[in-house]
Structure formats: structure tokens, C-alpha cells
Design a protein that fits this description.
By secondary structure, the protein is of the alpha/beta class. The protein has seven helices and 14 strands.
Length: about 240
């Protein structure tokens, strides 16, 4: 599907960093509500790390997440679904053939909201060299195909190790001096000429105004089931926060 100047619509529902797994199953409830029409959405925007582990070539990660994948595909038959791949979920085309997929290489994604030029990103773009090399390695189809074989012959010890590691992570901590870090990053990548950016990844649930540039970092759904909806009555981009009940 073409992503030439995707239009972000009033009423779009945004979910970031759900890190869906057996330990965090609540995403299913929200997705099912969207599919059933009980939670209204003009579009569904998935901001990356929706799954804790979903790597295209790794068969087990698909089997574990099959229910959520099927609901997302069913939603895509009703409304537009845009999925910005994260650092926990990537190479997903085989699983989501009918939705707009945005790999890291195409982020931030330039979209339009009314008369504004807005950027969307998971949030891990343009990091330091060591991290960029790491992201290239883990997204290599050759590396992941080899990992898939090794995981299978080892009775899934590799995936179980990753499970244990991720279960111990604190996804909800506060980043000190986050505003300064954000401003420096925006300047380095010459993004302040746009009207704003929405991203996840950092889990900070905060926003800043840099001389008219609207920076929004979304809360992680994994922390307390918060999601966001683009306000319908605003000319300037604003999001309304909701919590799954």
C-alpha cells in the first residue's frame, strides 16, 4: 500500500508500546473493542513495540501472538491501520498484508493533519552508531533465519531467554532531563521545520512546545493501559488520553 502523505484523521486511535505477551494480555481487550465498534476509531495507529516479541522470520513469535495479529487484520478490513514497526516488532509484512507498515528505515513518517505537517515514529530512529549497528543486525533476515533454526533445535531456549530478560525490565521509569534530550535530537535531525512529532519508545507520556513545534511522547500501554485519540474539534493537533476499563 502507498504511504505518500498519509492523512492522520480526527478520531484516529493511537496505541504505543503495549508489549503484548502472556504477561500483558490487555491489548486484546482494546483491539476487540475497536473491532466490535464499542471503542470508536476512524483509524488505528500502532506506534511500535505493540508486541513484546514479534520478529517476522521467527515462527514461535508468530504462534504466541496469533490472536492479536488476527484481530488487527480483521480491524484493517473495516478501517485504515497504520503500523510503525518498533524494536520489538519488525519484518511484519507476512503477518499484516493489508495494513500500512512503516519500517524503521522510513521513520519518522511525514503525514498530514488538516493543514499541518506531522511526523510519526516509534522513536528509535537516528540513535548513536552502536545502536544503529545493533538494529541493522537484528533486522537482518539472514541473522533471524539462523536464529529461528537455532531456537528450534534448542527447544526454544533463545526465546525463553529473551522472555526472562524482558520480564525483568522496567518499562515505566522516568528519564531525567528528557526535554533537553528531545530538543537536541530534533535539532540534530533537522525536524523542527515540521509542525510536530508523535512518538513512543520512551514511555514518558509528556509533551513539549519548542517555539511552535509540538512534541508528543505517548504513554506505554504496557504500563497502565493508556491509549490516545486525535481530537476531532481541534485545528491544531491534540490528543485525548483514555484508559482501558
Amino acid at each position: 500500500m502507498s504511504l505518500e502523505l498519509f492523512e492522520l484523521k480526527p478520531g484516529a486511535l493511537l496505541i504505543a508500546d503495549a508489549h503484548y505477551s502472556d504477561q500483558r494480555p490487555k491489548l486484546i481487550e482494546l483491539l476487540q473493542s475497536v473491532y466490535d465498534g464499542n471503542t470508536t476509531a476512524s483509524q488505528l495507529i500502532l506506534m511500535g513495540d505493540i508486541f513484546d516479541l514479534l520478529f517476522g522470520p521467527i515462527a514461535l513469535t508468530y504462534e504466541r501472538n496469533k490472536e492479536a495479529i488476527e484481530i488487527i487484520n480483521a480491524i484493517a478490513m473495516k478501517i485504515e491501520v497504520l503500523y510503525l514497526e518498533g524494536n520489538h516488532d519488525f519484518l511484519l509484512k507476512r503477518y499484516f498484508p493489508e495494513i500500512y507498515l512503516v519500517p524503521l528505515s522510513s521513520q519518522p513518517l511525514h503525514v498530514r493533519f488538516k493543514d499541518q505537517d506531522i511526523l510519526l515514529a516509534h522513536g528509535d530512529f537516528g540513535s548513536h552508531l552502536k545502536y544503529r549497528l545493533y538494529t541493522m543486525l537484528i533486522r537482518s533476515r539472514m541473522v533471524l533465519s539462523l536464529l529461528n533454526v537455532l531456537d528450534w533445535v534448542s527447544a526454544h531456549r533463545i526465546i525463553h531467554y529473551l522472555d526472562d530478560y524482558l520480564e525483568k525490565k522496567d518499562d515505566c521509569y522516568k528519564i531525567e532531563a528528557f526535554e533537553d534530550l528531545v530538543k537536541e535530537r530534533l535539532e540534530i535531525h533537522s525536524l523542527l521545520d515540521y509542525d510536530g512529532i508523535i512518538e513512543g519508545h520512551f514511555h514518558q507520556n509528556t509533551k513539549f512546545d519548542f517555539n511552535g513545534f509540538n512534541y508528543i511522547n505517548l504513554a506505554a500501554f504496557a504500563c497502565n493501559e493508556r491509549y490516545f485519540v486525535v481530537k476531532s474539534s481541534q485545528e491544531a493537533l491534540e490528543l485525548e488520553e483514555f484508559r482501558l476499563r
